[in-house]
Each structure stands twice: as C-alpha cells, then as structure tokens.
Design the sequence.
C-alpha cells in the first residue's frame, strides 16, 4: 500500500511517500504564495521521479498551516497530531515533542501511541521560530548554517536583552559595534531562542525523552543551546523537517486500513 | 548603498528673537532614546532651542552630539546651564547631566507643557516602545502601561514597513490615506510576520497605499488596546515620532472616538522638554550643578 503525506508549512511544502511503512520518496519546495499550484506540482514531480502511478496511491493526508490548499488530500490533520504520530513511530517512548519551524514553535505532550495530550504553540511572535535565526543571520551577514556552526565555537554567555526579533536585530548590530566576536553573538542568539522554547515546553510539561523536529532541528547551534538549557540530549530524527509529512502519511495508511476493514465487514461474504 | 527610506529629518531649531543672556535661568533636558535623541534648552522656562537626531550606537556621544547641535550658533556652552536632566533609555549615559529622571515622568511633564493642563492621557509612541500615560493637571503621572517587548506598535515597526515598500517614512501616513475603501488590517501582530504578509499582499496586486493603510490600521489597533487597558481619559494627546503619522493618528482617533490635541511643538521633543522642566523645578528648589563639566567635543 502506498500513502502520501503533504506538509504545507509557512516556508516549505514537504511531501513524503510511504510504501508498506517504508519511506520510499520525499521532496520539498518553497510553499510560495500559490500553495495550491505548488502542492499540485510537488505531487506530480514526486510521482514522476519515483515512478509511481497516481492510481497506486491509496490515501493522501495533508497537514501544516497550508493543509487546506492541498486539493487532492482525502484527509487533513493538524501538524501537532502529525508530529506526535511520527515521533511515536520512530521513538515509541517519546514523552515530549518540540517542533520548531520557520514561523511557529510547538511543544507537544505525547501520550500512549503518540496521542496528543496537550500542546502549546507560538505563532504570534517571530522570537522562538526559524524566522528569528534568519533575521539574526542577516544582521550578522552569515548564512543560517554558518550561524549554527560558529556558535559552537563559543563558550561565552552574552545576554540578549531584546526578545523581539526586530529589536534583537538592532541589539546584534550594537554588539558588533562593541566588537563582540560573531561566534559569541551567534551563541547568544541560540541561547535566547532555546530559552523561549524551553519555557513554552514547560507549560505542557518537560518530560523526557524529548524529540526535536522541524527545520530548526538542523541548526547545530540551536541544538547545543537547547540541550544545555534542558540538561538533556534531545533526540533528532534523520530528516527532522519531514516529520509532519511522515506523520500525515502514517495517518493516511492507518485510515486506509480502517476503511478497508469497515468495507470488508459490511460487504457480502 | 540602497536608499534608506526609514530616515526621518534630523534638525535643530532656536528662537532667534530671544537673547538667552538676559535670562536668569538656563535649564536643559536630554532624551536619549533607543532610536532618536533630543536636547532641549529652556531660558526662564520657555523653549529656546532644541535638536532632534538619530541615536548613535553609543549613548554618551549621542547625548553630547544632540546637546552640541541644539547649542549650535547660540553662543551658549554646556557650562552656561544651571541644571541639566537626562532621560530616556540611555539616561544613565548622559555624562554632563546632573540628574536622571525616567522618560515616563518626563513625557507626562513635557506633554503637560506642550498640550496644556487639560491633558489627562498621553500616548508616547517612541522608536522602540509605546507608553500610555495618565497624568494630572500638573503633568504628574498617575498611572501608565508600557510595551517595550515587541516592535508592533513602535516607530521601528513603521521604519521596517517604510523600507519594505520603498516609501519615505514621512510620507507613509499621507499615502495610507489615499485609499477609496479601508482594507482589513494586517492580521499578523509580529512585525517580522506582518512584513511577509505585506509582501504577499503586494504580490496579490495590492497598491502600496492599500498595504500601508492595512498596516497603519493594525498599528492603531495595537496601541488602542494598550490605551483601553490603562483607561483613556480626555483630553488625549500623542507624543513621539508616530504622532506625526496621520495614517496611524486618524485611525486611532476613529477607533477611540476621541480627537487628539494638536501639538504646539515637535512631538519628538516631549521627553527632553519634560526633562528641562524638571531641571527648572529643581533649580527653583535650590539645586545647583554638581559638575561644571569640561566634556571634550
């Protein structure tokens, strides 16, 4: 059985193909402004690349802020449900999922079989999301990857007074003027987001083990700051930004099985 | 270098009709804000000269630069002052000030001078914060609320938008009023997200004026909620840089159902003006300068 999960995030749309529980293909591209067209093209490109016929696909489930734009999805679930479901699949003992994307940060308390027991979301403010690091990287004139890498070289703790990304940008520039080394500023930036994320996570309960997913789980500087703030080693899956799409594909598979069973039970013989 | 649309006019002013040498008391106020700095010189309690400029990356120089600029062509030096009060975010970094007083107190005091004793609510829309201040007939603070955590509803937020749209900040207000029908406000609170939202609206073909209208009305609503919480009482007045933006002011007046008093002076100098008035009151109480400084320029 083949199912597909599509996660339409603020920045990227991600699509993942599952065949009998195994990930057989994944693809992403910028969500852009016309998400309907983007997700249509993403599906066509993936099917072509992995040699899959549209008729072979049993179910498609969409998730993410732009999930309603996916016209071909039979099911739609929230990114919170999707992330918790996927983390349970990868790490069955998961208690907490932290998902930090381009424009949102989420903390999820995960129960039995990845059922969502409680969650907190910050979608109002760029502090505590990927947008914050992007803005800071711009102010420091480094790439986001480099921002993560250089921050590992620092063991200073420079306080950041500003929470707001707009104000933090001015603060970063003042720190540069004061000749603070870039690596120390980079660490201060990651410490600041980590502390925002940890306090949000505490609202739902910070129970270990913790799994970190979303695009920010690619940022080594942020991971280090988060681990330090939580005094723990978070678990990070291989493709952390694909997790919600993976969860959606898993849910599509489960629902296909349930539907088949129900049809089978009510059918003749 | 790209054009800096956020730049507003920096300038100095003096009352050329007046001879300060005949005054019995010279007091000064310096407001070092996070975005702009102002210095005000008062002769016998009347406004004599001021300057209004951008804050540099280090406060002691910003304070001195502002003061020197206010004194330009007046023949006056810092040693001629009877008392100087520093205020604003960088108030502890005014090396030649005799005392530091919070900008909340100074804005209320300056607002009282600028708008008269009937003013009860002063909304100070600054570069990196926004304060709703209630005061009595003498300009004494009775209550206040402040947002200094978030750029939404501050001058910095407006600068970001001026830059995004490539429209000089001083034209934003007028341009935002050039719409036939008021569009719905930008829905994101966060300036970073509002910026992406606006970029999307432009791509959808919205004219610049409509996008500005949507942002000015979002900003007006944001400060309206702050005013609601503190409890607005008439007369109502606005100080700070955004007070010059008719796009925000008109929409806020509409939402409040109140008209803001018209300012007699540059709304950005209210804090420094209040500081200079405090300096005058302190001299009248017998306070004198501790330091006749010889600050090098």
Sequence:
């Amino acid at each position: 059985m083949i199912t597909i999960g599509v996660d339409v995030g603020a920045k990227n749309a991600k699509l993942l193909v599952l065949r009998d529980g195994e990930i057989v293909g994944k693809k992403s591209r910028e969500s852009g402004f016309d998400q309907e067209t983007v997700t249509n093209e993403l599906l066509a490109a993936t099917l072509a690349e992995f040699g899959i016929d549209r008729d072979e696909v049993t179910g498609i489930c969409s998730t993410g802020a732009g999930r309603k734009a996916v016209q071909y999805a039979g099911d739609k679930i929230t990114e919170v449900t999707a992330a918790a479901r996927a983390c349970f699949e990868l790490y069955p003992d998961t208690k907490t999922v932290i998902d930090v994307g381009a424009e949102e940060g989420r903390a999820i308390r995960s129960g039995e079989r990845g059922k969502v027991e409680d969650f907190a979301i910050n979608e109002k403010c760029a502090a505590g999301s990927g947008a914050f690091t992007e803005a800071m990287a711009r102010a420091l004139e480094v790439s986001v990857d480099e921002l993560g890498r250089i921050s590992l070289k620092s063991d200073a703790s420079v306080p950041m007074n500003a929470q707001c990304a707009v104000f933090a940008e001015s603060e970063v520039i003042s720190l540069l003027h004061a000749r603070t080394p870039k690596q120390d500023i980079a660490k201060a930036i990651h410490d600041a987001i980590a502390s925002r994320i940890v306090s949000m996570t505490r609202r739902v309960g910070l129970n270990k083990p913790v799994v970190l997913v979303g695009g920010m789980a690619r940022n080594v500087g942020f991971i280090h700051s988060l681990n330090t703030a939580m005094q723990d080693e978070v678990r990070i899956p291989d493709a952390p930004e694909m997790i919600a799409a993976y969860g959606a594909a898993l849910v599509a598979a489960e629902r296909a099985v349930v539907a088949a069973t129900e049809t089978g039970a009510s059918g003749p013989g | 270098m790209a054009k800096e649309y956020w730049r507003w006019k920096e300038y100095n002013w003096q009352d050329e009709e007046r001879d300060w040498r005949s005054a019995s008391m010279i007091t000064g106020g310096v407001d070092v804000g996070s975005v702009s700095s102002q210095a005000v010189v008062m002769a016998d309690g009347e406004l004599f000269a001021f300057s209004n400029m951008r804050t540099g990356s280090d406060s002691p120089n910003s304070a001195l630069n502002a003061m020197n600029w206010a004194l330009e062509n007046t023949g006056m030096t810092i040693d001629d002052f009877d008392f100087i009060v520093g205020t604003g975010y960088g108030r502890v970094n005014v090396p030649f000030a005799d005392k530091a007083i919070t900008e909340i107190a100074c804005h209320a005091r300056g607002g009282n001078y600028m708008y008269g004793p009937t003013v009860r609510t002063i909304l100070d829309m600054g570069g990196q914060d926004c304060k709703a201040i209630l005061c009595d007939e003498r300009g004494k603070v009775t209550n206040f609320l402040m947002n200094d955590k978030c750029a939404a509803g501050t001058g910095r937020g407006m600068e970001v938008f001026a830059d995004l749209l490539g429209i000089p900040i001083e034209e934003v207000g007028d341009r935002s009023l050039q719409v036939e029908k008021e569009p719905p406000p930008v829905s994101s609170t966060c300036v970073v997200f509002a910026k992406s939202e606006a970029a999307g609206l432009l791509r959808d073909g919205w004219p610049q004026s409509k996008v500005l209208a949507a942002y000015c009305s979002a900003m007006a609503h944001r400060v309206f909620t702050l005013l609601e919480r503190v409890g607005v009482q008439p007369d109502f007045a606005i100080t700070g840089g955004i007070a010059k933006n008719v796009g925000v002011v008109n929409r806020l007046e509409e939402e409040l159902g109140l008209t803001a008093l018209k300012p007699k002076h540059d709304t950005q100098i209210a804090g420094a003006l209040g500081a200079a008035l405090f300096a005058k009151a302190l001299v009248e109480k017998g306070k004198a300068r501790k330091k006749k400084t010889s600050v090098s320029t």
